[in-house]
Amino acid sequence: MKKLFITTLIFVFTFFQQGHISADDITISISGSIENKTKNSDSSKEYLIKLFKLINNSEEINEISTTNTIKAKFSFPKITIDETEKLFLVTENDGLSVITELQPNEKWDDLNIEIYDRGTNLDYIKITEYSLMIPQTNSIDGKMSILGLITLENSGDKTFQSDLSKPDLSGFDLLRFSLPEGFSDLNVDSDLPPGNVMEIPTGFALSNPVPPGIHQIIFSYSSLTINSIFSFNLKLPFGADKVRVLMNAPEGIIKGEGLKSLEKIKIDEDFYTISEGTNYDRGSNIELELSSFAESKNISSIFTFFETNLYKIILIFFISLILLLLIIYSVFLSMKNNPDYKLSEERERLILKIDELKKSLQSGKISKEEYTILEKGFREKLKQIKGEY
Q: In terms of domains, do 204 and 144 share one?
């Protein structure tokens, strides 16, 4: 990833400033040749080469010098640098940049830089291995995280890169990979030269150049299970020599075209169910179906705790309930014996009596005179209890 970090830094900076000479500066010369590995390439072609320095392992990158090749030869004579600075050459070809890190222990006066012409033919791109791993599933919301590792090979003699300026550009022109419908939290990393990750409804695509050779792409995303089943139409536009699916579930079930169960393996303290298939043609589809997932460790541990300590939990519950009832009863008794509580209770009784008198008067059960006498008596008692009603 160090190379990827340095490569990204070089592409991020558009303008670079030359550094000053310090007391520890040394004078060096750099020279070498460019070897275009693409068959029938133009041998008379000139290439632009830039020399950069990375200062004290920081993120500060400065351009030192620029030159053009003559008959595929280049030279940077008498370059002054600090001994602590790291040097890089960037060779431009067909809009592609090839970065060469100059190692301290190698000779810099006879460098050989290999480059390739640019190509847009995906026929030379193939997948040698496609691995999916489901480490854990959340049994509450059915959400799971999925890790993917793709080993990719460019068997041609040109660096593949999609022509994004093409008016009729389609998904078939891109380096693309399928994901389940409704995926989220996508992260992608690779050892490819810098490029962009483009999320599309059916997965993701990369704009990165793909030089000839073997490369790796690592990605992760989240997806949902439906009725505890994960279904996914895995599309393989570039085919695959091998497809492997691992799930953290000793009793897990993995189904899919051409997949065969392998012996379970133990990683740390977990057993993984594994299925593998080989020799998938370009354009193949695998209808993946995964089920019988292991419970989330957190949820599982909670259930285990309750199962093994159930009698203790019940005993503690009843003891707590009895103590609570005793406390409530004690409070009630203290209130009953409290004079203020008794007065409040009597006050409420008198108010209800006055209300009953009003209803009796309205219904004709008592006369107005009787109501006036009784109501006055109740009010006098209320005044004695609490000031004024």
A: yes
Sheet of strand 48-54: strand arrangement: 61-68, 48-54, 86-93, 96-101
Residues 44 and 65 in one domain: yes
The total number of structural domains in the chain stands at 3
Q: In this structure, are 376 and 355 located in the same domain?
A: yes
**302-311 per-position pLDDT tens digit:** 444 444 555 5
Measured CA to CA, the distance from residue 282 to residue 106 in angstroms comes to: 43
> Final residue of a domain: which of 61, 88, 115?
115
Asked if the structure places residue 301 within a domain, the reply is no
- Strands lying side by side in the sheet with 25-36: 73-82, 25-36, 111-115
Whether 303 is covered by a domain: the verdict is no
> Residue 389 sits in which domain range?
309-389
| 271 within some domain | yes
Other CB atoms within a 10 A radius of the CB of residue 170 amount to: 7
In this structure, what token pair is assigned to residue 354?
Answer: 């006055």
- 132 touches 230 (CB < 8 A): no
Q: Which residue in 276, 201, 285, 200 sits closest to 236, CA to CA?
A: 285
Predicted TM-score (pTM) of the model is: 0.66
Distance CA 215, CA 160 (A): 13
| pLDDT band at residue 375 under the 50/70/90 scheme | low
In the three-class reduction of DSSP (H, G, I as helix; E, B as strand; rest coil), residue 152 is classed as strand
Strands (E), 225-335: 230-236, 240-247, 253-255, 260-267, 270-280, 284-291
Q: Helices 297-308 & 310-336, crossing angle to 10 degrees?
A: 70
End-of-domain residue from the set 296, 328, 346:
296
Q: Of 19 and 81, which is predicted with more confidence? A: 81
Q: Pick 13 or 374 by higher pLDDT.
A: 374
Q: At which residue do the structure tokens 């897990």 appear?
A: 252
